[in-house]
Every structure is written in structure tokens, then in C-alpha cells.
Amino acid sequence: MEGSQLAADDWWRSAVIYQVYVRSFADGDGDGTGDLTGVRSRLPYLAELGVDALWFTPWYLSPMADGGYDVADYRAIDPAFGNLAEAEKLIAEAREAGIRTIIDIVPNHVSDQHVWFKAALAAGPGSPERELFHFRPGRGAHGELPPNDWESEFGGVPWTRVEDGEWYLHLFATEQPDLNWAHPAVRQEHEDVLRFWFERGVAGVRIDSAALVAKDPALPDLEGHQGPHPYVDRDELHDIYRRWRAIADEFGGIFVGEVWLPDAERFARYLRPDELHTAFNFTFLSCPWDSGLLRRAIDDTLAEHAPVGAPATWVLCNHDITRTVTRYGREDTGFAFTAKAFGVPSDLELGTRRARAAALLSLALPGSVYLYQGEELGLPEADVPLDRIQDPMYFRSQGRAPGRDGCRTPLPWATGEPFAGFGSTVEPWLPLPADWPSRAADLQERDPGSMLALYREALRQRRSLPALHTEPLRWLSEEPGLLLFARGEHLICAVNLAEHPAQLPAHAEVLLSSGPLDTDGLLPRDTAVWLAV
């Protein structure tokens, strides 16, 4: 990795950031759960891959009711993953390898095992402790009905009644009580937590559910409600993030927000120069494999970011989303949580070909790229047996939704080792599919045609091609089915989604192709290429 690029203050504007779901990355102590020891042991692999930063999903103390997004203590590492000293070593060792660290913050809620919530339950109605959350009396003759008509993000009623009769709000799982961000102690605590981790060397923070944090104090019903949404994208959020930005600026840190908003102007407000640095691009992530829709998603994304001077982010998959190889092999290649279902067929050969092309597409676009662990191995969605599913999405849907465990299955590292080299001496927390050894990293390292080889070469070239860091995108063709654009004067990316092979533009050299070109030099269907001009 080139030191001058890494040292730049704006490294994040064109960085490739690798998402680590610790529980499933690598098991260093053999107990069936991925941990920080496992991550540290794989730092050479990540350095060889060529990523600029690691984003860790929550590694904090947690009962794991929602995969760690139910945080009991932000200043402690969960024992299943290690301890604080080991996290500090990991941050330092990664930095020595030229890789920065980004951590998760989950500001909307905490675990029901958090000291604040346990104190609130013990203190009773009307207590100062309950003011840190959203406790309300119920409706109905005896308070037996929820306080309002909201629906949980995981489905069902987002209210749970406690023994003294009051109800508490949880937009997600029952074990994740929402915090009251109108309370100064809640704001102060999170500012202190940010400082705690910046002081330990993290380079950035990813904000979970960033647009859901603030609530209308009246908690009104949604039906018939007029005016701003009672808990989505409220204006008071911007004051919170401005205070956070001031803290990040003290340490040279950055923020990336998980912001799902259909309104481009409202979305861009979060990326003003005194707020968040970047935000995830869900428009591109959920877009079907269709040239017209992808071009519109790219144009809309760049247009959204342009007024505030923020870089776009590009991502194909994460710990919540059906893996790219599986999704692109289906008849419906888009993504929506409401459409997830069991038994949807997928052509994995077709999906792999498209995922390879999508990798080159995303890495050629202006901005930063997020790469979810296992995507560089071309892993498909795992079919997790029903009796092994752990995701609360599955249970809250009464078994209708498959949940997210299929994209969270432990990684295969070594072909001939137990559990494909994940490191466990016991059955891992989620089972590995029977064919996982054939997709293991050690096997792909020896195969120049593998997905891993493609990603390594693409990231190597991306680092060495200045146009991919500095030059804007310029479309070169309106031909249906073809995405053809330039970055600067000397680099072209072409992606063919049409039914027939496409003619390549004049070029001096083929730098990289996601698959073999036709013998006459035409670009086959579902193939991408980088060209030097």
C-alpha cells in the first residue's frame, strides 16, 4: 500500500473498506465463534488483498440477541471476541500493516442488559432513570394496549410491557430498548464513548440506523399523523451529528452513516461539511442487474452528493443483505427486505459471472467502496437449517422471513481442515455449507481465475491508477445494455448487460477483465473490463 496515499487526510474519499463481521471471520481460540485473535491472524491476508480500512460490526459486550447490535457496554469487548487490550493491539497492528480501523456505534438503542436499562426497570414509573428511555403507560381500560400504533423494524409491535404496567419502546428487538435522545445524559454518554475509541486509535465510526435516533416527544400514532415523521429523519438529528463531527475533527476521524432515505435533498443534509463524512448508498446496493437502472442509480447517487461535496459510497452486499452471487443469479436481482423468502432459486454460475462484473464496476466508480467479508471469495448465500437460525428477524416474522444468517455464515479459509479452516475445534455458531471447502481462500489463492485473484488484482490496479482516485465519471455511450464511462482521459470501464456481445471502444490495452473476452475482442454478456486509452 502506498504510504503517501494512506497518509492523506482525505484517504476516506476513495478508500476500499472491508467489513468484518467478527463472529464469522476467523476463530482464534477454537470455541466456534470468530474473535479478535482470529482477525489479527488474518491481517496478512487483508494486507495482501489491498484494503485501506476495516469496518468492524459491534464487538462490544452483548447478550447477542441481535448479533451484537444490542450493546450492554460500549467500553468493553465481548468475552466471546476477546478483551479491550486485544482490541487495542488489533487497531495498532492493522495500522502498522497500512490498514485503518472503523468501528460501529449503535445510538438508537442499547441492550436490555445495559446498566441504564436495568436501573430504569428497578426504579419504576416516573423515575429519572426511566427518562433515559421511552417508557409510557398503555392505552385501553387497563393500560393493556401499546401506547401507539408504530411497527417494529423487525416486524410486530415495538412496545413491551413490564411488570409495573408501563411499556417501553424498541424499534428493533424486544431486547433493544430505544434511548431518549432528548435527554442530555444520553447525548453526553455517546460523546464520551466516541472520545474513548478515538483515543484508542480508531480512524472512524459507522453509525447504525443513523436516521432513526430522534423521536417526537409525543410519540404520536402514525395513522393520520401530519408533519414530520415521528422517528425518521427528524431535524434535531443534525445538531447531534454536528457535535459528533466536532469530536471527530479533533482526532482526524471520519463518520459513515447508515441512512436509508428516498428524498435526495434530505439525504444530502447529513453530508454537509460539518456533519457526517459519508453515508451508505442503498440505492446502488438494492438495484437490480439492469443497465438502465444501474446507470440511473449511479447518476442519482453522484447528483445527491455533489451539492455538499461528499464522496459517494458503493457497496454490493453487507451483513444484512443477500449475498451478491446468489442475488444476481435470481430472476429478481434487486433487493428488498420485504421480498426475502425461503426457496428462491438461483443460478450461481450466472450470479458469479455478474458478481465479478459488478466488482469491477463498483471499484471503477468515483468514491469509496465497501467490501463485505467473503464477497472477495464469491460466497453465495448459505441455506441455514431452520433449527440453526438465530436472527430475530426470522422469529419476529413467525418464520416467514429467512432472516440474515445466510450472509453471516463463517468464512472458509482452508480446504483440508475441519470446518474449512474457520479455526473451530467445535461446531461453529452457524454451520458451514458442505461445499464451503471448495470456495476456501487457500484454494483460491492458487487459482489465477478465482474471485479472490480478481479482487486482489483490481485493488492493486485501483491503488496505482490516479484517475480512479481523482477524476470524475464521464459517460461515453447511451447504447442500451452497455455501461461505458471514462475516468479522466486515459481510463475506460465497460460493463455489458445486453443480450449480445458489445464492441469495445478504441483502446491501447486491456488492463483487467472480469471474464474472458470473445476471440474477436468483443465484450461478452455480463462481463466488465478496464481499458487503458
TrEMBL record:
GO terms for molecular function: hydrolase activity, acting on glycosyl bonds. It comes from the Bacteria. Residues 19-404 form the Glycosyl hydrolase family 13 catalytic domain. SUPFAM superfamilies: (Trans)glycosidases. Belongs to the glycosyl hydrolase 13 family. PANTHER family: ALPHA-AMYLASE FAMILY MEMBER, NEUTRAL AND BASIC AMINO ACID TRANSPORT PROTEIN RBAT. This is Glycoside hydrolase family 13 protein. It comes from Streptomyces rubiginosohelvolus.
